[in-house]
Amino acid sequence: MTEFQSLQYRIAEYAPNPSPEESLEEGYEVLRQCRAEARAVLVIPYPAELSQDPSGSDDAEKRQLQRIILDASARRFQSKKIYLRAVAAVRWSNARNTTLQSGKPLQQQTVLLQQANTNLRTELAAVTDARIYNDFRQTDSQAGYWLQDDPSLTTILNWIRSQAA
């Protein structure tokens, strides 16, 4: 949960203020989308069935705990994906601003801006579900966390789809 909270704070810090003519640039659109998605993750209600007493049986308690772990894993997964996309867009914004303030000839600026756009698209394409899931597994394993009860990537993605419906 600490990582989820940290990711949410970091995403909230990315508040670009482009000029009206720049606001439709791809990187700024990605940042706006990331902020909206991060807010949406925060307002998804906690499933009501998870806050009910599991009726005392060991099986019911185990199922409830698995659903709680799944909900937390899905929120963490979503936040990390949003965060990685936002970081790519911030890098794009920084490269764009550096280029525009460089005083270089217009033709050279155009090439550098195109390169920044290409880098943004490459970074966004690298933010895959499998990459995020595998990063979590590796990080959690290195931290010594118990992974046997963690949901699979397919289970997480299905949970996210079901919550969006």
Brief characterization of the structure:
Helix content is 73%, strand content 0%. The chain is mainly α.
Describe this structure in words.
The chain has 165 residues and is an all-alpha fold. Helix content is 73%, strand content 0%. The chain starts with a helix and ends with a helix. 21% of the residues are buried. The model has no long low-confidence stretch (mean pLDDT 87).
Structural class of the helices, strands and pairings? mainly alpha
Q: N- to C-terminal separation?
A: 24 Å
Outline: elongated
H and E order: HHHHHH
Radius of gyration: 20 Å
Helical proportion, percent range: over 70%
| Number of E-type strands | 0
Quote the beta fraction: under 5%
Q: Sheet bearing the most strands, described? A: none
Q: Helical segment tally? A: 6
What's the overall average pLDDT, rounded?
Answer: 87
Q: Low-confidence spans: pLDDT under 50, at least 5 residues?
A: none
Topology record:
Layout: H1 2-13, H2 26-43, H3 58-100, H4 106-126, H5 129-142, H6 153-164
Task: Name its key features.
single chain; 165 residues; 6 helices; 0% strand; elongated
